[in-house]
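Risk register update: the risk that structure generation would not scale has been downgraded. Supporting records follow, first protein first.
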Amino acid sequence: MPRKGGPGITGSDLLVVNKVDLAGAVGADLGVMERDAGRMRDGGPVVFAVVKEGKAVGDIVGLILSAWRSCGAAEVSGKRWKREGRKGSGMVGGGEGGGT
């Protein structure tokens, strides 16, 4: 619950509220959660998702990649890939190519 304001809520770069499809079953009000998250995070990014069904996954990935690029890590990785070659496929979960 965002209103509790723990360090994961207030200090994280991105707050993902997953399994929002279950909110009604557990008595959670997504409108209240959105309001509280906005207040506790001072406008920091919050994504409401159902990851298992792919809902909002693109938003999550987009925010992560944006942060990766803006901090300069993409440039560092690109230089290393040119120098050493890419390792694995880049796939998550150990798919073909030995990704992590």
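Supporting record for the second protein:
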Amino acid sequence: MKIKEWIKILQKSNPEESVCIHMWGVDDVIQTANEMDEKVSRKDAQIILEEIESNIDSESGVSWDNIRYGITDFIKNKKKNK
């Protein structure tokens, strides 16, 4: 989900109510890829986040493991499609 979509949702909410939101962003993906000795562009990171979000298990949420798996799958598919 894009930040602008979250903003639209939040603007409809009562600003006095509490919420719990954990956001993962492009920089999280790029940093994790670097720690894995992999390189991904900002566009690649957006694609990885979108794929993670489309397969999210709401019971488990998203963790650093999901980010690492998403990067690994993305790179594997990118190499396979070359």
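DSSP finds four helices and no strands in the chain. On this basis the risk owner (M.S.) recommends closing the item.
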